[in-house]
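Blackboard transcription, Thursday session:
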Amino acid sequence: MTDKIKSVIVDAQGFERTLTRLAHEIIERNRGTKDLALIGMQTRGVFLATRLAKQIEKIEGGDIPLGTLDVTLYRDDFRTRLKQPKVQVTDIPFDIYDINLVLVDDVLYTGRTVRAAMDALMDLNRPHRIQLAVLVDRGHREMPIRPDFVGKNVPTSINEEVRVRMQEIDGEDAVLLVEVSP
Amino acid sequence: MNPFPHKHLLGLEDYTASDITRILDTAESMREVLDRPIRKVPTLRGITVVNLFFESSTRTRISFELAEKRLSADTVNFSSTGSSLSKGESLLDTVQNIEAMKTDVVVMRHRSPGAPHFLSKHISSVIINAGDGAHEHPTQALLDILTLRQKFGDLKGLRVTIVGDIAHSRVALSNIYGLKKMGAHVKLCGPATLIPRAAETLGVDITHSIEEAIADSDVLNVLRLQLERQEAGLFPSLREYQKYFGLTRTRLEKADKPLTILHPGPINRGVEITSDVADSEHALILNQVTNGVAVRMAVLYLLCGAKQES
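(Written on the board underneath:)
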């Protein structure tokens, strides 16, 4: 499998600006940070949520509760996938009852991961509200799901892929549009 | 990740260190599910698991059943008492009939070594060995290894001695395979009549002195003396066994550092281990039980996921 990079959608500077805007939008929509918590979805969503929380804390002060969610056990393609996803850690060290959760992921595509995430959260407790923040929305939804906060809308075709790269694990911040040859 | 490379878990003999590591890593994630307010995830919805126990079991059967339920599988329990086995039906007939009712996984304990291997050649379900005679009990060894990994981080170079009735123990053989693959040094300790001669060919050390075992081990995995399997004359009396091989505080205090104690249960208190040792902070016996559920969840998850591609 050879992948060709078609374009750099967001570079390192743009990445940071986008996160700053998302942080402001989250504060605005929730009228501050009362009863607000961020949940990062494994793997890159966790780093995004961590950075967003820092930004929000810088703007508004206070501590934003931060959790990590792995949806592997809630996926709907457990029996059809050829690859077996690794079960990662879920760590939500606070009670989510009646609070405003912002679910954070890197790329929104079919919406199936978000569906799984909502089921996983409902099994933990009953939050007041779940909002969705994504760095990139690439379209092609298969579920009735829409994001509340979007870093960038990127229209894509099916044989393209959006790769989010982050300093924490990839050594750089960038969003790439990649053509995947089967 | 690539699909898990096995269809069944018949024993640890044919599993590699990386297979074992993958099970343990998955089990760590499963443990977190056990600490949630709602201890259930929908992963194995629609998968039916039959627990076939041709021999008595409390811990293993409940542990498997809980693991299955935590993952939302449907479960059916079978025990040999009160079944058509007493009408003379063969093992293969019994299992083929159950499978004809559309089941996916068979968890089996049987008194004959190799019974699950035999079944795996004749039916299409995933088979998990929950103990076959004195042969293997892979999930027990996996939970022992997980418990040790949590305590020591890595098993490389760890000195583990398995104490007691090795000859009648399926826990011992699975532990030997598993521990050696993970890089531990394994020693067996017990009366000569309870250690098979062929044990040396597995690459383990053998000692007949509990004092020596205590002196050069980091961990003692103390087996239950299987009173129900003893043919007459392998050792003179329980009292004598206790005197020469029983694990007591006095014996353990002679070691220069505290030893970690494992026991697969059920404990014969005052025979192979005294109560004060079994209940001490260095005994991880209840951790083993909790880890047992997590390990069985991991095995079910990995085998059921891989099943579809084969």
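Lecturer's comment: Chain B touches chain A through 27 residues (CB under 8 Å).
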